[in-house]
Amino acid sequence: MAKKAPVKKTKRRLKRSVRRSLAAVLMVTAIAVAAIPVPENYADNGDAKESVMARAADVHDMSDYGYDENSADTETLPSGSNFKLDKYAGKTDEEILKDLDSTVWASYAVTDLGGGTFSLGWQFLFYKVINPRGGGDAGVVCKYNREFYSEKVDLSLYPITKYFTFEAADYDAYYAGTMDTNKRKLMDTTDPLAPIEYTYTMYKMGGLTDDERAFFTKYFAEELQSREQEFKAYKALEDAHDKNPSAPEPGPEPAKLSKIPSNDLSAEQKLQFFCEHNNQLKKAGSGFTLFSVKDGRPGTGNSGGNVYLAKGGTLTTGYVPDSNGFLVMETNPYTMCAIGNEAFKGVTNVENMDIPQQIGYIGNEAFADATLLSSIKLNNVDVIGNKAFKGCVNLATADLGQTTKVVGKECFSGTKLTSIKFNNATETIGYGAFYNCRNLTTVTFENGGQPCTIKDYAFFNCPALTTVSMEGTNIIKIGEGAFAVETGSQPMDFILPSTLIESGNANDSTIGNYLFAGRSSLGYVKFPKDYGRSKAVKLPDAMFHGCANLKYVEFPCDPKNDPQACGFVRYDPAKLFADVINPDFYVKGPKLNNSGDPALPRESTWDAVTAVSKTIPYVYIENGVNFYEVSDGTYLLCIDDKGVLISCTFKPGVSKPTKPNIDLEIPALVGNTKVTGIASGCFSDDDLNESIVSLKIADESITSIADGVFEARVVDEGTPNEKRPWKNLKKVYIGNSVTTIGANAFKNCESLIDVTFNSPKAGYEAFQIGQDAFKTESDELTFHGDIAKGYAPFDWAMDPNNIIESTNGIRVCYKSLSPSYLTVMYNPITQMTTLLDYPKYDQISSILTDIHRDELGSAKTYEQMRQNLLYEQYSSTDYDERRVAFANAWNTAADEDAKLELYASENYGPWVNQDFCSEWNDWLDGNPHAPAPDTSAVDALSDFLFEPIVAYAADMQPYYSRNPYDVIKNIESNNPYSPATPEELALVNAVRNVVVPAGVESIDVYGYVNNLTVDGEKYSGDAGNNTGNYSKYFNLKSWDSATQKMYTSKVPDEDDSNAIVPGLFSGYYDDQYDEADASNELFKRGNDRVESVTLSNVKYLPDYAFDSCERLRTVILGPDCADIGTAPFRGCHMMSSVGDNDYYKTQNGIVYSVNADETLTIEECLPARGRLVGTALIPDQGDENLSKVSAIKPGAFEDCDYITTVDLSKTSGLSVIPEDCFKNDPTQDNCGMLSSVTLPRSVNEIQAGAFSYALSLNTLTIPGMEVFISAKAFEENGADGSDKKAVTTVRTYQDSSARRYVNTYGATSQFNLQWQDIGNQWRVTFYDADGIILKDLKNQDGEVIDNPQYVGDDEYVKQPTDPVKEGWTFDGWLGTDNTKVSDRIHGDTNFIAQGHYDNGSVGGRFVVEFYDGLDGKMLSGRGAEKDGKYYVDAGMSFADMGYEAPAFPAHNNAANPRWSENWSTTTKVTSNMTVVALYSSTTSGGSTNTPGGSTNTPNTSNNSSNNNNNNNNNNNTTSSKKSSSTSSTSSSTSSSSTSTSSTTSDGHSVAMYTVLVQSGSGSGSYAQGATVVISAYPPADGMVFNNWTTDGNGVTLASTSTPVTTFVMPGNNVTITANYVPATTSITAPVNTVGTTGTTGTTGTTTTTPDGNTTVDITKPGISNKDLATANVNGSTDNFIVKISETDPATQAVAAALTNKYGSLENILYYAMDITLWDSTGSYQLTGDQIAGLSVDITIPIPDALVAYGGNNMAGAVVNGDQLESLNESFTTINGVPCIRFQATHFSPYTVYVDTGNLTEGMLDVTPKTGDPIHPKWFLSVGLACLSVILFMKKDKKVKIKTA
Predict the structure, then answer these.
(1) Left if phi > 0, otherwise alpha if psi is -120 to 50, otherwise beta: which for 629?
(2) In this predicted structure, what is the pLDDT of residue 63?
């Protein structure tokens, strides 16, 4: 590598300076982003896709779109020298109060503070103006007191400007005698300090004055009464003495009554006394008292203190009390006529306002930001100023009254209004008047009235708006974006006002652009009938921007009286509806305009497109009939109201093309009207018909094609205008609704070569094709459709009489639809429908590429297209952290090995794409060995992402460059970053599992090509042959060269000369799909990828039909297959059975045919006999049919590599051992295991090759005396002198022909045979447990024993010592017919060793179980038995057995799936195993979700944890104490039992602890809190699983009695043991401390209950996308139907339950459901005990009316009649549709509901774009801040010069 240029110190300084400057900018930007206000989130309804909006932005010019808060478009309020609303705007209270009582006056009020406490203060300030309405002087409210709280502000007619007030100090001074002289003048002359006396003298003189008496009477009445009684009594004594001096003298005079007010009056009496002597109060009335209140008046110097007011009393004329009874001294003489600018701005102490009649004007920002204001009533206001109520966030109600003319700019912006009504006096609604009113649902305009203009963005961003009523109003203009929204909207229909007509000014549209932009749920829009009536008017291009679900647009006209209304409205067809994704959208309008020409909206619609369709239907009415048109821009289709296609012509103005190029489609719907038929004369435009090259009759459209409707007839023959319509038609698609194709329908369409029939909805039997319908006279014709008997297209194509081109006998080639893609043709020689092709494994890519040819774009193949799509998916900023992490790791990689490790890291994925690598390689400046360019731009990039750079990235590979998208490999590996599509899965399944459907009678492709009869003879008859069809359709055409070779060529296999038999499945096929896998291929012949073949209707198989199909496991013969040829399954080493029929049956791996006499013929012994099925000995248990055998087919036992012994002695009349019967393949090391064959006495012939290559044959017993043995019977058996050949002992009689044969051919140089006399001896052979003849046997005395032994009749056999095998214990010998080894021998006998494996294997097989590490569920795939487990031969791998690993389940945020124990399909199984699926996190920057692993450290622990482990970030970094490790025979057992530590990506250390499982699997290292799955090994013979026991170290098992259980990992090492007992022993009762897991049984097996197939039927309206609903019934395996319906009882119960819970339904929106459970037919409802214990997990789309509330939706069930039970609902998104999940534990009333009074903003969007309610701005802000800190803290390093 070249050296990197040195960097100067000055350069580093410059970089540091630039970097820190950039850091400062980033930090400022981060703070600015954080300060951005966040609006409420509203979820889209799931239909309007973001991608559509993004695409539309390219179509529409949006440069001038958007709300402008600084817009100068404001409303002007009345103003003049005598009337101003802004006189005091912007001034503070203090500044205004300086002018108090000069130019500004205060309106005072007393506030009741409660508890008898009041406060006096100024409520508002006002100034005088001349009322513009007339009436002279008036007032303008200019400032409201922020500290004056009032629940309701009532601006009275005459504001109070003065109360009677008296300062508390002056009051005190009055009684103290210190009152100021001027203040004293306010009082009368009474001195409160002077005594008021009543003496006896005064009594005698006439008593008190009136005032004196009043004083004493009021305050001292009792004393006055008592004193006067004393005075009276004394006077009586005095008078008596005067009359009679002798009477006693009266004594001293009574004491006087004397009171000083200041001293003797109580506090309350002083208040009253004061009022009586105040001159102002005496003038105002009488009976007052003073009341102390808090003083809030400005400028008094007493603010905050107390002041006295007068209250009560009787008032004189001219005086009034206030509402609390306090005396008012003055009111304003003129009324308030306006509220000035900013008068109530920012006021937070006003809740409700009733603006009185006299106020006609509200100034700019009058109530702006009055956040407490909740309602306003305007009784007589003419003008509401700009921003008058902006920011009143709690304003929910506004009554505009009947006089409001002008609503100013942003008047109600940001309020909480839910509805607004405009009177017919309204003339202007200003710019953004109701901007961002997110709760506004209803806007109403009164009919008629003044001309009204709605200005730009007046109702912008009101997403809740559902109703706008303006049809009968006098609105003359609606501005730009008036009803647009930014995101999200509710369903709404819109009828524009009838008065809205085209403007006289061409540049001034009366309908603004972007009018409904963003309203994805807008339903329909109806234009005014006079709009565009008389002159052309163009609609704005982006009027419907983002209106994704628009249903239709109507330009109304009265077909009878006014048919030409709206006739001159035109629009840009490429732009106006470009965002609509509703496939049923249409336009409705007039047919003609006033000029008699096609109406302009009609013409525009002919060329219009939507986001999902190149055509838009147009509907017009003529003569009372609706007509529906649609055009692709070239042709014009028209249907009537019955759906009948009445015309198809060139669109007016379109000329006939020079070269035919038109693709015609007859759609299913035009608008929402179904196309049902084609009228006679519909296709009358011969120029168009002659230009059509393809015809598509859409699904769900017409049902019949009439006679001759597309027939190519000559028109104007012999004239210059001669035409032949339809002559250029090449391709036809027949939709699924068509049931009838009439006679001659496509007759003479000489270019027609391809017809596709979609599967008919009405069924196959209903389809009919008329005579000569496809007599095209073309030289080829291919039908694509379903293969089914009774289906007319298939029957027509296979009809012997239907020849489309007679010269060469060309017939119809028939191909089935996706995913099977079978090719069949009729074979006139065999008179059978023959399968001639099917897709192969290595053709899948090309098939998918052909299917998606129109979607490839820049890609050349399907795989490249998928890579591009996935690159785009992973290009989001969500993966930036991983990109950066990978880049940094690559930079610091020490060597190439370290780089290779990075490719296996979690940070390497599709986010490392072409763009990323291209940018990286820009550093190289085109030269991989040149230094990086020394430019500031590169340095800046280096500092930001890739510093320090020490390596070049020329060898860095984008993800799909290193891991190319490959359909097959993706499916086999379950790569999460290359997920298989349903289409791919279906195709691969069809390729692996070939189904030959009913109607196909032959698979003999070789016979078809070579014109052979069923017997394989060359056909020489006159019924025609297949040569022409073969040349036309197949020969290197639809067949590629490899297929051609496989089907037709006898090319010898280099390893198996002369063995090639051409055929559909058997021929030479060098499958180069996977080179590594090809190394395991035995032969380059046969389809090694096919796994099953179903022959539904095939009548015979050609010889060697499935030769060497090395993965073939099953062939279903079907009921008609009566001949399977010779050795059809040769080399099929994975086959263990064949589907039986009346002609054939399979037993123990041997295929028998049934003869007429009920004897059997051995057709073939499957090559898997002795390996996958049966034993190596024939016969054995299960071979009962062998006794019925009377014949054997040639090659029946050929290549049966695992058979050791065949005894045919008990067959039924077997006479011939046919050709190649026991022939073996000499090239395979494991071949030639056949050691012994015994023939029956009935055999009289052994044919050529019968024992060819039988190199291990030790014994051949031929009891027949005269047996013809072919000279080639033992061909190739040691003729070359090879030591491979064992000496074959032919046991026969001395004078037999067999002995003479041995004498002739037995020499070593020939067949290496020797003779042995049968005599009276019986052959006894000892075999090991696998059926292999034992060698080197000895008895107990050490004497060598022959094997086989020959024992005389009724003698004993010499018993060998017990066989020994590692890990296996001998139990005894099992002899033929249950003969015991100690019995006397009476016939040939085989003894097989019986025993058991010490390691728990069953019959030499080990159990392998798979579990999901995230949820603990058992996993299984192909090869697993019914119990879900795999049974693998000891020492074999899954690949050896032909098994497949289970598919990895899909989990959110889980990737990089892998198997524990580093297990793979090539792992040799040497013990029972439990394998667990492990995963890594896919969250950006996430860490490995497995214990012991982290982002940069691969996990090497043997574990089976779930993904909860990474959530238990225990900070314990200290290893626990070591404990000794106990050995286990399981390969999964950890070698260490000490605690280890792993570091997560966030730097925390997680302690790992060891689990040791004795006699079970699951050992490994786990984090504390992880869920551990353990499994007991299968019990040995005679034993059963008992229970689990633990060392008691903090472990609580979910179940101690089940073989598979779980527990939560404690913070210490654990040892757990599986315990077994003899099968006869009673099972120990388990102690279950937690509860059962749902699995039961104590016999060592776990029964898994599969879920049933449950469907959901939603009949209640209100839920779209009902087909997305799913359900799963827990607790049963049966199939069910869950019905969700609407019933009155359920609705009433839900309403009652919600009312009980919330008190009322005022804020509750709900969707009531009656949920019931039915049987699978839907005819019987389950009730009572039938549903006991069942529960249903239900997923349904969120009801339409509630979808906007997203995660605020809740699910509930009604219990106990009227109580609501809350459910644990969750949310998901299916195909973009928000759905809710919950569990139904009983059946009947349920509800999904929303409490609108308690919404959570972050919960309003349930789409799965983010997992939490955090606004994206915070991610950006935090990210910028982090970058800033990094740049600040980073230290520069000197650049190191490195060499390569």
Answers:
(1) beta
(2) 80
> What backbone torsions phi and psi does residue 1324 show, to the nearest 5 degrees?
-120, 125
| Spatial separation of the C-alpha atoms in residues 1204 and 1257, rounded to whole Å | 9
DSSP string, 943-1001: IIII-S--S--TT---HHHHS---HHHHHHHT-TTSPPPHHHHHHHHHHHEEEE-TT--
- pLDDT score for 1527: 34
Which one, of 1737, 1744, 1732, 1742, lies nearest residue 1767 by Cα? 1737
Of 1711, 1703, 1694, whose CA–CA distance to 1758 is shortest? 1694
Provide the edge-to-edge strand list for the sheet that holds 740-741: 704-705, 740-741, 768-769
Phi, psi of 1007 (to 5 degrees): -65, -35
**Dihedral of CA 815/816/822/824: which sign?**
negative
Beta strands in 504-624 (DSSP E): 522-526, 537-538, 552-554, 569-570, 586-588, 618-622
pLDDT of residue 18: 59
The span from the CA of 1199 to the CA of 1187, in Å, is: 23
CB-CB contact of 1096 with 835 (8 Å):
no
Contacts of 351 (CB under 8 A, 6+ apart): 150, 151, 152, 372, 373, 374, 375
Q: How far apart are CA 1298 and CA 1718, in angstroms?
A: 73
Is-contact 336 141, C-beta < 8 A?
A: yes
Q: Are 16 and 1828 in contact (CB under 8 A)?
A: no
C-alpha span between 1496 and 1487 (Å, rounded): 9
For residues 1092-1116, average pLDDT: 91
Question: Residue 1714 class from Cβ within 10 Å (0-12 exposed, 13-18 middle, 19+ buried)?
Answer: buried
Mean pLDDT of the chain: 81
Q: How far is CA 232 from CA 208, 244, 253, 1312, 1417, in A?
A: 14, 18, 11, 174, 115
List the alpha helices (DSSP H) in 590-698: 600-606, 686-691
Whether omega before 195 lies within 30 degrees of 0, making that bond cis, reads no
Q: Measured in Å, how far apart are the chain's first and last C-alpha atoms?
A: 4
pLDDT for 1765-1792, tens place per residue? 888 888 887 877 888 999 888 777 999 9
DSSP designation for 1056: B
Write down the pLDDT at residue 396: 94
Radius of gyration of the chain, Cα coordinates, nearest whole angstrom: 50
- How far is residue 495's CA from residue 513's CA, in Å, rounded to a whole number? 17
Give all strands (DSSP E) within 1703-1753, no chain letters.
1708-1719, 1735-1741
CA angle 829, 833, 835 (to 5 degrees): 110
Output b/e per residue, 661-676; b: 16+ Cβ within 10 A. Answer: ebebbbbbbbbebbbb
Q: Beta strand 1788-1795 with 1708-1719: parallel, antiparallel or unpaired?
A: antiparallel
Q: Transcribe 1594-1620 into DSSP letters.
A: S---S-SSSSEEEEE--SS-EEEEEEE
Nearest-angstrom CA–CA distance, 603 and 597: 10
* Residue 852 CB coordination number (10 Å): 16
Assigned token pair, 562 = 């006014």
**Strand order across the 320-321 sheet:** 160-163, 327-331, 320-321
**pLDDT tens digit string along 1466-1517?**
888 888 888 888 876 554 333 333 333 333 333 333 333 333 333 333 333 3
The pLDDT score that the predictor gives to residue 1484 is: 39
Listed in order, strand segments (DSSP E) in 576-661 are 586-588, 618-622, 625-631, 635-639, 644-650
Task: Give φ, ψ of 1673 to 5 degrees.
Answer: -90, 120
pLDDT digits (tens, 9 = 90+) for 506-548: 556 789 999 999 999 999 999 998 888 878 889 999 999 999 9
Lowest-pLDDT range of 363-367, 1311-1315, 1559-1563, 1770-1774: 1559-1563
> What are the distances in angstroms from CA 255 to CA 202, 216, 218, 219, 223?
12, 16, 21, 19, 12
Whose CA is closest to 1529, among 1478, 1469, 1572? 1469
